[in-house]
Amino acid sequence: MARRHWFHTVLTALIASAVLFLLLRRVDLHEIPNTLRRLPWHVLSLGFLVYLVFVLTKAWRFRLILGLQIPFHRLFPILALQTFWTNLLPMRTGDLSYVYLLKQGENVAANKGVASLIVGSVVDMLLMLGLLIGLGGLFYSRFQGLLPVTTLFILPGIGMLLLASLSLPALFFPGSIRNYLEISQTRVQHCLEGVRKRTHPPIRAFLNLFDWMLQKIFGLMAELVQRPQGRQIVGILSVSAMSMVLRFSFQWYLIREMQIELQLSEVFFALAFTGFCNLFPIQSIAGLGTVEAPWTWALVSLGTTSQEAIISGMSLHLIVLLYSTGVGAIGWTMQRIQGIVRKDSP
Length: 346
What we know:
By secondary structure, the chain is mainly α. The chain has helices at residues 2-24, 31-37, 41-66, 72-88, 95-106, 110-138, 146-172, 174-197, 201-224, 230-257, 264-277, 292-301, 306-344.
């Protein structure tokens, strides 16, 4: 398992490096620092403050998803560190920091932490797919060929239907699904118990490990179909939409201040496609290449020059990496302070 993980990581890094090399070959590399230098310091500072607010909305959203009364000042540093590690580490492994810190600091079970990440990702997918379909219909006449139409409009529509068809039963019939899971788990464990009695110790040890894994999977699935209250669903969707609009808007503002001529709708479209692609475990280290590729594809498909698309994507990505590092430092500092206060408290 570990060998396969490392192989996947190395393969992703090699592919991302090749993509990044091909993209950067098409532009004058001096244009990237020149573009960044156009950004005034006060705009860069304002952008960081807005990014902090964005992380605050993430913490608010996960508090709603978890449905637990975790103090906000303790949840924020967890999301700040998760934001940093997710931007830095490959294949979304940074999300594991969220599960670990929740368990260590707030005693939240790992399956509940993983389930909240899955719910958050599903909500993000639905919002981004909806944005892609809506703006894709607006830009339909601008798509340059069948491939852009397929990747940027038809496939998102199919994905939206599939995701909705999988999510709605869990939302409206959680009791039936939970009963089915309990029955299935009982039957599988009964079958494994019968096999264990007739096997040798080495095979029995493997079956014990398999049984443990199944219990974790069934526990996670049961956690996913916990019926949320109507107000909770509205809150999660509202805060998620607000968080996405805030993130996309401030990134468009940064692009405008770098004197790159892209419309708000074009930036939202490219960010939605880039964000959707990077919800899957495909990132390279720091997302280099795996962020720029979908961004460039979306904008070039709308008729933007490849040079403008690549330079804007790379410049924006470097700024976001800088912001996430700052946010991670704030989260780390808050955690250290809170740890000292807890030790000193009677």
